[in-house]
């Protein structure tokens, strides 16, 4: 069975790729192309501007740009690492490879940048290389000189960041799809009733893992701006340290994909996430965690508490002016445990308290909550899940799971 995808489209939806490119360009003014293993861009976008947009407006110029990206991308395959060079028109390009399980899926090319201000010779060479495109030389000279100049450290930091994000999402979804495909193939081939029952359980677990896989890219997109902003503002050391911390955290999660983890481990993950958020909030965020010692070994589905905290930060506290408070409270209720995430942010309408998280709905903050709700019900049954409890001045999101031995 060949499980290798033909292109990146089999791993990441086009809208997610465009979102990565849009976020990265807006934060850094560095535009990227994501290319497949043959060197072709896997998604079309309109985030080039100035000089590069003029060159790409001509069919011949666009083909040369794609060829420049492809050549540098293939060089990353030879080197097994990032590669820096110039495009056909003299603009600096940096490419990084996308490699998963030893398979080269393509490359990411960062452009629209120069390492130093262009001199007269650079402008002369550029005009000679683009003379046949029929574009206004004066306009090309002007926009060429307006291309942002960045230092090598920022160039490498930006390339390393975008490589990590795309490669991680590719690997995450690839592994989830591979596991589900293997389970389905075994189930189809099974004839013995006992084996079928056993494999149906395996598929049930695969569905849980796929839902878990969906929440991780959602978390990545919301933290991407934080790290890029640090690099853009010139705080490269802090930005790279934050990136390495995030990389180690996510890599650990990928290599240890337990369905259930002790509550203390989930809280540790949440605390690490909040450290990253405090880089954005500064002293505007105050956190209190109240969890009894005897509940710290409670088995809980991995990545079920963090999305609740993320929603509180992004949708509740970030739009609020001034100091915001976030509380995480756990308590026993008969034979169950309730874990509440409470914030005093901008709040949500009270009619959302009757929202059915089992159904599709337009509430943006409900995407992660619906994912967690469905996983809890798959794991523990229809009596468990997530509830929204909005009230005046506070928003509470409550997670309910059965009390069981760790």
TrEMBL record:
One of its GO terms (cellular component) is membrane. InterPro entries: Bact_2-comp_sensor_kinase, HATPase_C_sf, HATPase_dom, PocR_dom, Sig_transdc_His_kin_internal. One of its GO terms (molecular function) is phosphorelay sensor kinase activity. SMART domains: HATPase_c. It holds the Pfam family PocR. Residues 300-405 form the Histidine kinase/HSP90-like ATPase domain. This is Histidine kinase. It comes from Desulfosporosinus hippei DSM 8344.
């Amino acid at each position: 069975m060949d499980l290798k995808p033909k292109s990146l489209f089999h791993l990441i939806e086009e809208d997610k790729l465009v979102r990565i490119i849009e976020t990265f360009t807006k934060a850094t003014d560095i535009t990227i192309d994501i290319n497949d293993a043959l060197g072709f861009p896997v998604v079309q976008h309109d985030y080039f501007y100035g000089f590069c947009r003029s060159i790409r407006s001509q069919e011949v110029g666009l083909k040369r740009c794609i060829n420049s990206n492809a050549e540098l991308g293939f060089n990353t395959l030879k080197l097994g690492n990032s590669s820096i060079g110039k495009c056909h028109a003299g603009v600096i390009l940096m490419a990084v490879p996308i490699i998963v399980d030893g398979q080269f899926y393509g490359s990411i090319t960062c452009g629209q940048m120069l390492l130093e201000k262009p001199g007269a010779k650079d402008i002369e060479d550029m005009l000679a290389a683009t003379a046949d495109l029929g574009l206004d030389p004066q306009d090309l000279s002007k926009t060429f000189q307006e291309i942002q100049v960045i230092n090598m450290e920022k160039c490498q930091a930006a390339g390393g960041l975008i490589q990590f994000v795309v490669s991680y999402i590719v690997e995450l979804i690839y592994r989830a799809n591979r596991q589900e495909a293997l389970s389905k193939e075994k189930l189809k081939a099974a004839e013995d009733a006992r084996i079928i029952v056993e494999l149906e359980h395996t598929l049930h677990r695969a569905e849980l893992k796929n839902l878990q896989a969906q929440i991780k890219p959602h978390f990545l997109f919301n933290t991407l701006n934080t790290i890029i902003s640090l690099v853009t503002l010139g705080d490269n050391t802090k930005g790279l340290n934050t990136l390495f911390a995030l990389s180690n955290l996510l890599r650990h999660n990928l290599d240890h994909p337990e369905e259930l983890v002790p509550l203390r481990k989930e809280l540790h993950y949440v605390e690490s996430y909040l450290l990253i958020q405090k880089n954005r909030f500064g002293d505007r965020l105050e956190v209190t965690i109240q969890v009894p010692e005897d509940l710290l070994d409670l088995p809980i589905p991995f990545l079920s508490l963090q999305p609740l905290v993320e929603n509180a930060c992004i949708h509740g506290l970030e739009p609020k002016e001034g100091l915001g408070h976030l509380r995480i409270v756990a308590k026993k209720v008969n034979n169950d445990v309730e874990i509440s995430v409470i914030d005093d942010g901008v709040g949500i309408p009270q009619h959302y308290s009757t929202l059915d998280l089992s159904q599709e709905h337009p509430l943006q903050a409900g995407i992660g909550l619906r994912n967690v709700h469905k996983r809890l019900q798959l794991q523990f049954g229809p009596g468990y899940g997530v509830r929204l409890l909005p009230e005046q001045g506070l928003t509470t999101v409550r997670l309910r799971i059965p009390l069981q031995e760790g």
